[in-house]
Amino acid sequence: MQTDQISVSIWRGGEDGKYQTYRVPRLESQTVLDVVTYIQRELDPSLSYRFACRVGVCGSCAMTVNGKARWTCRTHVSRVADGGAITLAPLRNLPVVKDLVVDMAVFFDKWEKALGSFVGDQTRDQALAAVSPADPRRREASAGIECIGCGICYATCDVVDWNKDYLGPAAMNRAWTLINDARDVARLPRLQAIAGDNGCLGCHSQQGCVERCPKSLNPTVAIAGLKRESMKAALKGELS
How far is CA 232 from CA 30, 157, 239, in A? Predict the structure, then answer.
């Protein structure tokens, strides 16, 4: 049932764009993604944005809503439309392609720099390695494996804003899950990749990534673990 209207200010253009305001019908159980979709389909077909699943699985609909990075498919208008108005912008800390679309290449390049891909030493002809769910390292890995790479933590991180070479919470959370994967054999190269001011030592533990993560993960804990393991490796002379 339609109740009234909301005012929606949306970033239009590239890095040097500006906000444009639209009036949108306000409906029951309406999400911010519903609002953006209505504008694109009914008011301005030139509006660019990303979405896929619409049910909080893919993370591609992440945007900045009233100054905070969110999944728009899971953000209801009733939670954010203070005074009947919403401001939408692209994610911070990432290059703007157009309107609400950002270039995620930088984000995923940093996963690669953190050696965020599994490295094994077994062939497909060998039996699958069995790792007990009770193993402490398995529990550490399991705590962070639900990350889907939406970029919200990266957009929220002030250290990324200060230091464009900083790897960011998601890349280091991924590195921590692999450090604790008993099947992975790239522990030392990975520690070498994430040690230093552009890696785990650059984290100020402000925990914005924890506050904003839609999956309720804790990258700060993962980064603290990387700091500990890096220090152990440094004391052994493995990082020199």
Answer: 50, 26, 10
Question: 3-class DSSP state for residue 146?
Answer: coil
Instruction: Give domain 105-235's CATH number out of 1.10.1060.10, 3.40.50.300, 3.40.190.10, 1.10.10.10.
Output: 1.10.1060.10
pLDDT per residue as tens digits for the range 64-94: 999 999 999 999 999 999 889 999 999 999 9
**DSSP 8-class letter at 159:** H
Name the pTM for this structure.
0.93
For residue 82, give the DSSP letter.
G
Phi first, then psi: give them for residue 69, nearest 5 degrees.
-70, 130
Query: The tokens of 111 are what?
Result: 């996963």
Contact 19, 25 (CB under 8 A): no
Where do the structural domains in the chain lie, given as residue ranges? 4-102, 105-235
